[in-house]
């Protein structure tokens, strides 16, 4: 009977730091920007215009964490979010606890 050779590959844990500056939230791995969410601030509204996650981090929830960061920032600054970025809009629509900061 032939033994089946199965390889189980486990993704290495990725550790990222988050940074907020210049109207952008970034996810950094070893000081290299691997993902970001950018926004334009206009009065009390933060217009989220773009989210990008590198292929190495896709599917690991980094994009959602970036959206969570801008939501927390909006709350702390008493601002609302206008999610023009389709990705950010989709995350906010699917996450009821993020919807309190949506621009009405």
Short description:
The protein is α+β, with helices and mostly antiparallel strands and 104 residues long.
Give the strand order, joined by hyphens, for the main sheet. Answer: 1-2-3-4-5
Shape: globular
Describe the main β-sheet briefly.
5 strands, mixed
Mean pLDDT: 88
Q: What does it look like?
A:
The chain has 104 residues and is an alpha+beta fold. 23% of the residues lie in helices and 34% in strands. It is built from 2 helices and 5 strands, in the order E-E-E-E-H-E-H. The chain has helices at 62-76, 86-94; strands spanning 17-21, 24-29, 32-42, 45-53, 80-83. Strands 1-2-3-4-5 form a 5-stranded mixed beta sheet. The N and C termini lie far apart (66 Å). Residues 1-11 have low confidence and may be disordered.
Please specify the SSE layout and strand pairing.
Elements: E1 17-21, E2 24-29, E3 32-42, E4 45-53, H1 62-76, E5 80-83, H2 86-94
Parallel strand pairs: 4-5
Antiparallel strand pairs: 1-2, 2-3, 3-4
Q: What keywords describe this structure?
A:
2 helices; 104 residues; globular; 5 strands; alpha+beta
């Amino acid at each position: 009977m032939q033994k089946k050779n199965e390889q189980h590959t486990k993704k290495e844990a990725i550790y990222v730091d988050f940074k907020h500056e210049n109207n952008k939230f970034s996810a950094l791995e070893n000081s290299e920007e691997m993902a970001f969410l950018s926004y334009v601030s206009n009065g009390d509204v933060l217009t989220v215009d773009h989210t990008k996650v590198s292929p190495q981090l896709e599917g690991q929830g980094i994009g959602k964490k970036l959206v969570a960061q801008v939501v927390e920032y909006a709350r702390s600054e008493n601002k609302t979010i206008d999610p023009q970025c389709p990705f950010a809009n989709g995350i906010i629509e699917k996450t009821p606890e993020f919807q309190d900061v949506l621009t009405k």
